[in-house]
């Protein structure tokens, strides 16, 4: 998944034209991303929040959403939006005082919400809307913050997941914003490494801590000036509470009426509630196959691959990984030279799906199309020639 700021402006980083620094907004995106992952049936495998765009590797778990009870679905949805008065009544009081027709209406809404909670479009809608509203409130402006609809690629197999995750985690190194993965800011691999250090009793700061204590300095005309700390997610949520109240009034039926009417399309997420959501952890790595919702590799193997690839990118050794080929590439039959070449141009080389030639062909059959861009790249990348 990729979302880009309007006009590719640096609305989440340091803008060389205006001199303003918006780095803290990258922290907003990470925090909101992990908060929403705790509500939706969607897991975060990897992310990289850059100055004017964000890359995400997400896993949709439709089976998890189907296993939720009706009460659980409604509880989760009403943490995002104010539902109709009938739904609010059910969440507060259960079935008490509701007739069969009203209960049928509640059930219908619950099934609608269930499908939305396992829908990437709804996930990205809430994420992007929330960040846009906070940024506009901070700038005291209105208008678009993100460029239209997000772009996405289906990852059809383990090799595609590995390639996409490495592509995302290496974004700051390709952009010369970091020299090693652990020094990159607002990336999933840096977060994983910080957590490992924290587990070893080393102090670490959360994104919430960083946002609440944010204080930066900028150079202007040779003089150093202090920039006031911008509000964190919680602070901006308070700014937006007035407009939220108006939304709650619009989306609910009159208090005295519990008629099963059609629900108006929700317009804005509840910022004050979103800011209180706990942050879900990133998808774990598990090479044993015992965990169903896990990345099917060992983290040590993945870290070795990212580190070796990052070294190639830094030293501009095109198509060459120094030393021994990382074992994870050998296990997945991935050609090292093609992997290095793809590490910088993956989105340009594939169309709407990434995977081995066999899986791409099956995807074409499923979608009833004759051709999908990326087949030649897949053959070079995922069909390693025997030595």
From TrEMBL:
Domain of life: Bacteria
Compositional bias of kind Polar residues: 203-226
InterPro entries recorded: Transposase_17, Transposase_17_sf
GO molecular function ontology, one term from the record: transposase activity
GO BP of this protein: DNA transposition
PANTHER family: TRANSPOSASE IS200-LIKE DOMAIN-CONTAINING PROTEIN, TRANSPOSASE, Y1_TNP DOMAIN-CONTAINING
Name the record gives this protein: Transposase-like protein
Region (Disordered): 197-229
Lineage: Bacteria, Pseudomonadati, Pseudomonadota, Gammaproteobacteria, Chromatiales
Domain Transposase IS200-like per the UniProt entry, residue ranges: 17-171
